[in-house]
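Late entry, evening session. Most of the bench is empty. Finally got around to the prediction I had been postponing all week. Sequence below, unchanged from the version circulated by S.P.
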Amino acid sequence: MALPAIMGGAAAAAAAYRGAQALTGAGDAAPAGADFAGALRRASEQAIEVGRSADAASTAALTGQGSVTDVVLAVSRAELTLQTATAVRDRVVTAYQEIMRMPI
Protein backbone atom coordinates (compact mmCIF):
# COMPACT_ATOMS: atom_id res chain seq x y z
CA MET A 1 0.00 0.00 0.00
CA ALA A 2 1.41 3.37 -0.98
CA LEU A 3 1.92 6.22 1.48
CA PRO A 4 -0.75 8.51 -0.08
CA ALA A 5 -3.35 5.76 0.30
CA ILE A 6 -2.46 5.39 3.97
CA MET A 7 -2.66 9.14 4.50
CA GLY A 8 -6.04 9.22 2.75
CA GLY A 9 -7.26 6.46 5.06
CA ALA A 10 -6.02 8.37 8.09
CA ALA A 11 -7.73 11.54 6.91
CA ALA A 12 -10.96 9.65 6.28
CA ALA A 13 -10.78 8.09 9.73
CA ALA A 14 -10.19 11.49 11.33
CA ALA A 15 -13.15 12.93 9.44
CA ALA A 16 -15.35 10.04 10.56
CA TYR A 17 -14.23 10.56 14.15
CA ARG A 18 -15.09 14.26 13.97
CA GLY A 19 -18.49 13.39 12.51
CA ALA A 20 -19.17 10.94 15.31
CA GLN A 21 -18.24 13.55 17.89
CA ALA A 22 -20.64 16.01 16.29
CA LEU A 23 -23.43 13.43 16.53
CA THR A 24 -23.00 12.90 20.25
CA GLY A 25 -23.76 16.54 21.00
CA ALA A 26 -26.81 16.60 18.74
CA GLY A 27 -28.40 13.44 20.15
CA ASP A 28 -29.82 14.95 23.35
CA ALA A 29 -33.15 16.14 21.92
CA ALA A 30 -33.88 13.36 19.39
CA PRO A 31 -34.51 9.66 20.00
CA ALA A 32 -31.58 7.29 19.43
CA GLY A 33 -33.11 5.76 16.29
CA ALA A 34 -33.39 9.14 14.59
CA ASP A 35 -29.71 9.87 15.24
CA PHE A 36 -28.64 6.61 13.63
CA ALA A 37 -30.94 7.14 10.66
CA GLY A 38 -29.64 10.67 10.20
CA ALA A 39 -26.05 9.52 10.45
CA LEU A 40 -26.69 6.79 7.91
CA ARG A 41 -28.40 9.25 5.56
CA ARG A 42 -25.54 11.75 5.83
CA ALA A 43 -22.95 9.01 5.25
CA SER A 44 -24.72 7.80 2.12
CA GLU A 45 -25.10 11.36 0.81
CA GLN A 46 -21.40 11.99 1.38
CA ALA A 47 -20.51 8.73 -0.37
CA ILE A 48 -22.58 9.75 -3.38
CA GLU A 49 -20.92 13.17 -3.41
CA VAL A 50 -17.45 11.58 -3.35
CA GLY A 51 -18.41 9.47 -6.36
CA ARG A 52 -19.72 12.50 -8.20
CA SER A 53 -16.55 14.46 -7.49
CA ALA A 54 -14.49 11.57 -8.89
CA ASP A 55 -16.64 11.60 -12.03
CA ALA A 56 -16.23 15.36 -12.34
CA ALA A 57 -12.45 15.13 -11.92
CA SER A 58 -12.27 12.40 -14.55
CA THR A 59 -14.37 14.43 -16.97
CA ALA A 60 -12.25 17.53 -16.37
CA ALA A 61 -9.07 15.56 -17.07
CA LEU A 62 -10.53 14.11 -20.26
CA THR A 63 -11.38 17.59 -21.52
CA GLY A 64 -7.90 18.83 -20.64
CA GLN A 65 -8.99 21.06 -17.75
CA GLY A 66 -7.81 18.90 -14.85
CA SER A 67 -4.64 17.20 -13.79
CA VAL A 68 -3.97 13.49 -13.57
CA THR A 69 -3.05 13.87 -9.90
CA ASP A 70 -6.50 15.26 -9.10
CA VAL A 71 -8.12 12.36 -10.91
CA VAL A 72 -6.03 9.77 -9.08
CA LEU A 73 -6.82 11.34 -5.70
CA ALA A 74 -10.54 11.63 -6.44
CA VAL A 75 -10.79 8.06 -7.72
CA SER A 76 -8.82 6.78 -4.72
CA ARG A 77 -11.22 8.56 -2.36
CA ALA A 78 -14.18 7.11 -4.23
CA GLU A 79 -12.65 3.63 -4.06
CA LEU A 80 -12.03 3.95 -0.32
CA THR A 81 -15.60 5.15 0.19
CA LEU A 82 -16.98 2.22 -1.78
CA GLN A 83 -14.84 -0.25 0.17
CA THR A 84 -16.05 1.26 3.45
CA ALA A 85 -19.69 1.12 2.37
CA THR A 86 -19.26 -2.49 1.30
CA ALA A 87 -17.65 -3.42 4.62
CA VAL A 88 -20.47 -1.75 6.57
CA ARG A 89 -23.06 -3.53 4.44
CA ASP A 90 -21.37 -6.87 5.04
CA ARG A 91 -21.33 -6.27 8.81
CA VAL A 92 -25.03 -5.32 8.80
CA VAL A 93 -25.93 -8.46 6.84
CA THR A 94 -23.85 -10.60 9.21
CA ALA A 95 -25.53 -9.03 12.24
CA TYR A 96 -28.97 -9.60 10.71
CA GLN A 97 -28.17 -13.23 9.99
CA GLU A 98 -26.90 -13.70 13.53
CA ILE A 99 -30.10 -12.22 14.96
CA MET A 100 -32.23 -14.45 12.75
CA ARG A 101 -30.37 -17.55 14.06
CA MET A 102 -31.19 -16.68 17.67
CA PRO A 103 -33.81 -18.90 19.28
CA ILE A 104 -37.05 -17.22 20.27
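Two things to note before I forget:
The mean pLDDT is 81.
Residues 34-101 form one domain.
Will write this up properly tomorrow.
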